[in-house]
Amino acid sequence: MSEMQELIIETVEKIMEKYSTKEVINDAEMGIWANDLWHQIVENGMLTIAIPEELGGNGGDFSDAFSILRLAGKYSAPIPLAETYIANWLLADLGEPISDEILTIASPDESEPFIFTKEGQGWRVNGKGLNVPWARYSNKMLVIGDSSEGPILSVLPLERAIISHGQNMAGEARDEVVFEDVLLENLKIINISPDEIIEKIENIGAITRSVMMAGALENVLNIVAQHTSERTQFGRPLHRFQAVQHQIAQLASESAAASMAADCAVQSFGNSTDQKEIALAKIRINEAAGKGAPIAHQVLAAIGFTYEHTLHHSTRRLWSWREDYGNETVWEAKLTNELLKLEKDELWPFITGVK
Question: Could you tell me which residue ranges the Acyl-CoA dehydrogenase/oxidase C-terminal domain spans (predicted)?
């Protein structure tokens, strides 16, 4: 880890500790925007990491950004940091300038088609985005659509959209966004190869959720370790009982596996178009979440199920995020399809090439 990355992590951790508190997270579930948290992220230049300065970014590399996202997962930060990163990275990759605005993405897999019709100097837009993360708080939404000029990508201002509020299991905003015959003047559209962009969204989305889940699992382990050292039964701390020690060891191994899988995916990201590390990370971390969260709730028993306790902030996010950008079944199918395409002398290099 570089000195700069250590400084970034130290700065962001302080921000998260102060501004992503239990009260802020609970308020976010009630529809109150975490404005102070977002403002601190922007003010400290953490929103445009891994984007060249000539496009409006702050430089740095993807590993810096993923370190920030891991902390966002650890502290259950109720802001669209990952979505803004993804949108900005896609725009920068297309040579488009970026900004500090709050951005979200209408996933092509969860949207009704967006149709763009040329009208004068503008475009008339019709379409619907489903389960759009944090749309109610976002300034703009990145969409993929069809036009008379072919498949396009555009960033739509949300002032004139009809937004219906929804939530995922974790209480995070997942909204329906409808554009019904809306004329947008001077809207920029970018001609794209849709399959390529959709694959990028899936890959970047999967790795962002993977590192956030690794962070959430780290927090779950910390909560369990603290609880079992402070809570006593029959005159002894819980962590002195062999059965509890076994559960803690299982949880620790799942957290460590998730952390390693996330690290490997981050190391490979940006250096190759090979998505096997991303697939393996999402598969393994989803598995870790599926095993780790029940262990934590079993150890904490009834206390961990109360709304007043913070454990559910992490476990509900783990259960929700494992479905985002493809669950393990989806990524197992992708990985299997890649394996089936290999010639017989390519299988062993494929397996041994996995970090």
Answer: 203-317
In order, the DSSP letters of 257-284 are HHHHHHHHHHHHBTTBS--HHHHHHHHH
- What proportion of the chain, given as a percentage, has pLDDT over 70? 98
Q: What is the dihedral of CA 149, 163, 42, 217, to 10 degrees?
A: -100
Enumerate the β-bridge partners of residue 141: 104, 156
Question: Is the torsion defined by CA of 296, 298, 300, 301 positive or negative?
Answer: positive
Considering only CA atoms, which of 112, 71, 69 is closest in space to residue 89? Answer: 69
Q: How far is CA 48 from the centre of its chain?
A: 16
Structure letter (DSSP) for residue 322: T
Name residues whose C-beta falls within 8 Å of residue 105's C-beta, 6 or more positions apart in sequence. 83, 86, 87, 132, 133, 141, 142, 143, 201, 205
Q: How many residues does the chain have?
A: 355
Q: Copy the structure tokens of residue 83.
A: 């979505």
pTM value?
0.95
Radius of gyration of the chain (CA): 21
Tokens of residue 68, six digits: 């920030």
Residue 111 pLDDT class (50, 70, 90 cuts): confident
265 in Cβ contact with 354 (< 8 Å)? no
Structure tokens at 61: 């590399």
- As a 3-state breakdown, the chain gives helix, strand, coil percent values, each rounded to 5, of 55, 20, 25
Residue 162: what are its φ and ψ, rounded to 5°? Answer: -95, 115
Domains of the chain: 3-100 (1.10.540.10), 104-192 (2.40.110.10), 195-352 (1.20.140.10)
Paired sense of beta strands 140-147 and 111-119, if any: parallel
Record the tokens describing residue 212, joined without a space.
Answer: 């956030």
**Per-residue pLDDT at 272 exceeds 70:** no
Measured CA angle at 321 (ends 92, 206), to 5 deg: 40
8-state DSSP, 34: -
For 132, what's the count of Cα atoms within 13 Å in the CB-facing half-sphere? 32
User: Once rounded to an integer, what is the mean pLDDT over residues 195-220?
Assistant: 97
